[in-house]
Design goal:
Length: 185
Amino acid sequence: MDKRGRLEKKDWMRAARLALLMGGASAVRVETLARELHVSKGSFYWHFKNREALLEALLREWEEEKSLLSDLLGERDRHEALAKFFKELERRVVISERGEWPSDAAIFGWAAVSPKVARRANKEEETRIRLIKKLLGDDDLGDFFYMAYLGFLLRRRRVPEAAKKFPILAKMMQSFLENPRRDSK
């Protein structure tokens, strides 16, 4: 809210992120969000043209997340970059559950029921996987990390308290990357 107690665009986005996370795209309804925010629907139209514009903003916001990965590729020290990556990913896991950041699980759930969103999510996912592989310096490790992360997302959706376990996954991945145990052939 602004200083005068009026809702800002970020308030609507947070409410929409939570609705998408908890109920999917069909739960992102102007009337429902307005009721939850205790305002009239008119407040919504100060910030968005219509519901489709809000849904587009949610998807675009998620697509822009890859900047975290691309920014870290510029780091000189790979280990420091990886430490920053896991720390930021852990932070985002927590704040996405509060609607303060886009949720990968929510977007993937939406993509499962919308071919249009699936096309965009698949394209974005390929970009993220490519960036992760580049950051890790190993294609197989990139695939492994991404699949482990997806498993975490699925578990977290079914068992919300599993979000508390993400630091373990991050620590194990970081430890493995710093001290790889590979069989030499």
